[in-house]
Write a structure and sequence with these properties.
mainly alpha; Arc Repressor Mutant, subunit A; 64% helix; 3 strands; single chain; 6 helices; 130 residues
């Protein structure tokens, strides 16, 4: 637990310093970036996050205030909304991801051989259904 805590703290500090993003904000931008149209329902973002639906909605509000996402009402049912990655959000995420990936490699991945990383990856795949 202490190793996890130290690792998470270092990753969060570096991410904030380099990009101004929290890990939760980065995760939302990553999920949107991976979508072909750059959009997901806020409900879907919450389902994949450690945040509650209201916590995810507040996070999307912050990202919208920063111009990184846009909230669009769901036309199909009018009860939900989509978070949509803006052009500025896509550019900001791309820069943040480049730096963050390099830091993850330096801090974490560099401690393991390619064979160890392959085995570790297979361990994580076993838990993918959770």
């Amino acid at each position: 637990m202490s190793t996890h805590g130290r690792l998470a703290k270092r990753l969060e500090e570096n991410l904030r310093r380099a990009s101004g993003l929290s890990h939760a904000e980065y995760e939302v931008l990553l999920r949107l970036f991976r979508e072909e149209d750059g959009r997901l329902r806020i409900q879907a973002l919450a389902a994949e996050s450690v945040l509650t639906h209201s916590g995810t909605s507040r996070l999307v509000d912050r990202l919208e205030g920063a111009g990184l996402v846009e909230r669009i009402e769901a036309e199909e049912d009018r009860r939900g909304a989509y978070a949509v990655l803006t052009k500025h959000g896509r550019n900001h995420f791309t820069q943040a991801a480049t730096q963050h990936t390099a830091f993850v490699r330096e801090l974490f991945l560099s401690n393991f051989s390619p064979d160890e990383l392959e085995v570790m990856g297979s361990f994580w795949e076993r838990l993918d259904h959770i």
